[in-house]
């Protein structure tokens, strides 16, 4: 079976459109449609059906495409292994939450690379549902997801459905962070009600499996008050350090980052929700046999010890 046929079908599922899939694969749309029809005749099932919302996979099609993606991932990995030997190429791809202790670990990991050799590193910060998709679809080697333990069941079911493995990295309570010039900076005991007059900085793409955006906003985010929604960490530090009336709920931040941005972090006595950061990977990837993965996870372990000390 020609792997091009598999790639065509996988790209159609990914985009939900024959036209967009053809554009992504740099081929004419009639040729892509012909390839999908040829594949369907070879395996004797209908892979896709058209709906008002686009092209979706049939139940049998979904089952087939899961196998197809695994095959393509393994072939891509084989090609990477034998076109660049480990001594030539230092390669790793990571999809993680916007967490300062993780970015610190990543920086230490990069510092230890051999800059005389070739390097191919991908590092993206995004929400947990997108990270699960990134890893499950083979676009990234490792992922770290973050979720409140109140929604653990949603995430465990989603990970199982995606055929992924996981292990816990860190359980923690959010701390509140703001400028050292914030009106609350010198207050010893912080309560949630103390924050009401101030502007909250919030990551705007919170996601939970099996819940739509409307339900998430009603459940996770208090719609009342003053909020600025952002989507990357650079802006959050600039806002927090320069807008003295702003604050943000975060995982514990390494001391050196707080000093660099002139911030302080404090526990809130009545904030008791527990969050979990979890490492995820595909079933066929042994991170402890991959040298690059081992180096990164070693730095994560050291960074966690640092913020907890």
Account of the 3D structure:
The chain has 309 residues and is α/β, with parallel strands linked by helices. It has three domains: 3-81, Arc Repressor Mutant, subunit A (Orthogonal Bundle), CATH 1.10.10; 90-167 and 276-308, Periplasmic binding protein-like II (D-Maltodextrin-Binding Protein, domain 2), CATH 3.40.190.10; 172-275, Periplasmic binding protein-like II (D-Maltodextrin-Binding Protein, domain 2), CATH 3.40.190. The protein contains eleven helices and twelve strands. The protein has helices at residues 3-15, 18-24, 29-43, 59-83, 100-111, 128-136, 152-161, 213-219, 233-242, 255-261, 291-308; strands at 48-51, 54-57, 89-96, 118-125, 142-148, 164-173, 175-179, 199-203, 226-230, 246-250, 263-266, 274-282. Strands 4-3-5-12-6 form a five-stranded mixed β-sheet, sandwiched between helices. Helix 5 (100-111) links the parallel strand 3 (89-96) and strand 4. Helix 1 crosses helix 3 (29-43), helix 1 (3-15) crosses helix 4 and helix 5 (100-111) crosses helix 11. The longest helix is centred in the N-terminal third of the chain and has 25 residues, at 59-83. The model has no long low-confidence stretch (mean pLDDT 88).
State the share of residues found in helices, binned by percent. 40-55%
CATH topology category name of the largest domain? D-Maltodextrin-Binding Protein, domain 2
User: What is the alpha-carbon Rg in Å?
Assistant: 22 Å
Order of helices and strands: HHHEEHEHEHEHEEEHEHEHEEH
Uncertain regions: pLDDT < 50 for 5+ in a row? none
Average pLDDT score: 88
In which order are the strands of the major sheet placed? 4-3-5-12-6
Largest sheet: 5 strands, mixed
Classified in CATH, the superfamily of the largest domain is Periplasmic binding protein-like II
């Amino acid at each position: 079976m020609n792997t091009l046929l598999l790639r065509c079908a996988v790209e159609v599922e990914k985009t939900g459109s024959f036209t967009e899939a053809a554009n992504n694969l740099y081929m004419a749309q009639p040729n892509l449609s012909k390839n999908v029809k040829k594949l369907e005749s070879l395996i004797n099932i209908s892979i896709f059906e058209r709906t008002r919302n686009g092209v979706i996979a049939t139940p049998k099609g979904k089952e087939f495409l899961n196998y197809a993606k695994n095959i393509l991932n393994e072939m891509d990995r084989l090609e990477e292994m034998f076109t660049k030997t480990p001594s030539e190429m230092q390669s790793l791809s990571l999809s993680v939450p916007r967490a300062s202790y993780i970015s610190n670990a990543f920086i230490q990991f990069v510092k230890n690379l051999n800059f005389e050799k070739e390097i191919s590193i991908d590092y993206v910060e995004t929400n947990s549902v997108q990270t699960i998709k990134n890893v499950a679809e083979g676009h990234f080697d490792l992922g770290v997801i973050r979720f409140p333990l109140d929604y653990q069941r949603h995430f465990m079911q989603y990970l199982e459905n995606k055929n992924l493995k996981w292990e816990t990295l860190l359980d923690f309570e959010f701390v509140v962070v703001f400028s050292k010039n914030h009106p609350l900076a010198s207050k010893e005991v912080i309560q949630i009600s103390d924050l009401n007059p101030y502007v909250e900085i919030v990551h705007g793409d919170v996601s939970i499996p099996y819940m739509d955006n409307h339900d998430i906003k009603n459940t996770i985010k208090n719609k009342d008050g003053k909020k600025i929604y952002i989507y990357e960490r650079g802006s959050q530090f600039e806002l927090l350090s320069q807008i003295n009336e702003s604050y943000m709920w975060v995982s514990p931040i390494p001391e050196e980052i707080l000093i660099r941005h002139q911030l302080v972090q404090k526990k809130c006595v009545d904030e008791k929700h527990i969050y979990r950061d979890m490492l995820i990977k595909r079933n066929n990837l042994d991170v402890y046999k991959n040298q690059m993965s081992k180096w990164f996870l070693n730095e994560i372990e050291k960074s966690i010890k640092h913020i907890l000390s």
